[in-house]
Amino acid sequence: MTDPMIVSGTTNDLDSLRQKLIAGSEKVQQQIIPQLADLGNEGLEVLKEFLLKRRDHPATWIDGKLYQVIYNTDAPTSREFLQTNFPEGIVPLKSDCGISYNSLQKLLVNQDFQAADLLTIQKMCEAAGSQAVKRKWLYFTEVESLPIQDLRTINQLWVVHSEGKFGFSVQREIWLGLNKNWVNLWPKIGWKNGNNWTRYPHGFTWDLSAPRGHLPLSNQLRGVRVMYSLLCHPVWNKTE
User: Fold this and answer.
1) pTM, to two decimals
2) What's the rounded Cα separation, in Å, for the pair 35 and 234?
3) pLDDT per residue over 117-161, tens digit each?
């Protein structure tokens, strides 16, 4: 159902849309952003102005939506705007061990979630060390010692560029809401249907129609011990 705030006024009323974008709830903002994008350059200018005003605060999925819409326009000025003001994107790509997350960011901005999922486990193995890189999967003890900064960066990239639907923190929130019940978690996030585990890769949903918390699955993370280490990692204590 369309929010009643959006029904009032015409879509051509830039000032009205601008005010709703600034003052509206996240739900309203989510609906306003594509409306402004459809108005061409004038609407894009409003989106750019709003994104700039928000850059001194930690990025949320609304910023991710703004960034993605601007990024996906054909206007050369849009790419120039992002390159000038957000040369490394809107999520700080920090790493405690010198890992570059630019490629992961690009995949997520483009919503290539399947490729991003594969790259996520690769980057986590890099953060865990050479042995994990060699075997291409992680022991639960390696997950426990993953650098806080790196796990935070990976998680933020997923959350910000998925309209808040995906990310390890989202999975943790759902898990805690289910009183840490694993049996209930797997079907809730679409990893299991009845007694059947979801088949990789075609059984999974690689777009935003997926259940909340569906990704990243980083297929090797499935299982209680490794997943427990991930959802109980010290990064969440620092974040919370």
Assistant:
1) 0.91
2) 40
3) 999 999 999 999 999 999 999 999 999 999 999 999 999 999 999
Pick left, alpha or beta for residue 179 (phi over 0 → left; psi -120 to 50 → alpha; otherwise beta).
Answer: left
DSSP the chain: ---HHHHSS-TT-HHHHHHHHHHS-HHHHHHHHHHHHTTTHHHHHHHHHHHHHHTTS---HHHHHHHHHHHTSS-HHHHHHHHHH-TT-SS----SS----HHHHHHHHTT-HHHHHHHHHHHHHHHH-HHHHHHTS--HHHHHTS-HHHHHHHHHHHHHTTTTS-SHHHHHHHHHHTTT-HHHHHHHTTSEETTEEPPTTTTS--STTSPTT----TGGG-SHHHHHHHHT-HHHHHH-
Residues in Cβ contact with 7 at an 8 Å cutoff, skipping those fewer than 6 apart: none
Contact call for residues 99 and 123 (beta carbons, < 8 A): yes
- A 10 A CB-CB count for 193 gives 12
Q: How far apart are CA 31 and CA 27, in angstroms?
A: 7
Task: State how far the Cα of 101 lies from the Cα of 123, in Å rounded to an integer.
Answer: 8
How many other C-beta atoms lie within 10 A of the C-beta of residue 47? 26
CA distances from 54 to 21, 51, 89, 192 (A): 12, 5, 13, 39
Cβ atoms of residues 47 and 37 within 8 Å: yes
